[in-house]
């Protein structure tokens, strides 16, 4: 693995993430989980800019992240000329910020330390690995300063999935990790992306209900960034599913059936779909979860009353931070509906 010098760490978004985020951050180049199950469908492996013709894998680690982030941040937020710009970060889009090497190198941790000094408006930390629990202390501090989501991919409840390599980290442990963050007061989401076969959808839905504020469900036919899942079809992902007897899970009919089932258990407002779901951050999400009466209340400055309260609350928290000892409370939690009594029969084969 090479060390890579970068002049910048904040990459402007385009395409799939452009509607919700201004930038992505990738502390590593490539990914150490390439040979795990998620490496079979990984959308980042199609990025020629990263692979440069090499088989998908871990290629490098970025140096001096704190300094580079500080410079990028100050250029955006404290410009000599012009106005401060919004900063909504998705970390990470083409690597996992908690690959095993992170344990030793601490690059993601160093970024979080710097972000406590220079918080973005929105931060989504997307990972497959429970190593994120190491950074609970920093994530708690940061979640008091910005809209922060801890986001773990949980594409299936099966471990192992017949016909596939082993998981980067067991799905049950990923759900446990989400629960730890949720109970600490951090916003949590599970991304079922891309949805893979489920062994016990009823049990899975109940685990999701207790560990996440919301889920985002996606299918390679909708969300791999190419028409009709063409990129994924160039890999052996679809073939593996078919050979293992899961052909129906390659269809959108099955996808919508599962989406509707999960919406019945968790409540439709907590089950977001594909691109729109991934981009539901900032006011998009806040408004989704508020009653209509609150949405229409406008204060003297023309802002939504709830927005004003939120900004005041955030400012108060910023000032209180050095003296803070206890875990911050979430600003709001969408109501959890009771699980629906409706149970759908699924075939796992
Ligand atoms: S962890 Fe993410 S970036 Fe890494 S191989 Fe899996 S899907 Fe790709």
Written account of the structure:
The chain is built from 16 helices and 11 strands. It has 349 residues and is α/β, with parallel strands linked by helices. The strands form 2 sheets. It has an 8-stranded mixed β-sheet. α5 packs parallel to α6 and α7 (171-184) runs parallel beside α8 (201-211). The longest helix is centred in the C-terminal third of the chain and has 16 residues, at 305-320. The two termini are 40 Å apart. Residues 287-311 and 321-349 have low confidence and may be disordered. Iron/sulfur cluster binds next to α1. Iron/sulfur cluster is lined by residues 31, 33-34, 38-39, 42, 44, 95-96, 128, 168.
List the helices and strands and how they pair.
Elements (H helix, E strand, L loop, with lengths): L1 E3 L6 E2 L10 E2 L3 E3 L6 H5 L6 H4 L6 E5 L2 H13 L10 E4 L9 H5 L1 H11 L4 E6 L8 H8 L3 E7 L17 H14 L2 E6 L8 H11 L2 E4 L2 H4 L6 H4 L3 H7 L8 H15 L4 E3 H5 L4 H6 L3 H4 L9 H16 L29
Parallel strand pairs: 1-5, 3-6, 6-7, 7-8, 8-9, 9-10, 10-11
Antiparallel strand pairs: 2-3, 4-5
Helix pairs in contact: 3-5, 5-6, 7-8, 8-12
The chain binds iron/sulfur cluster.
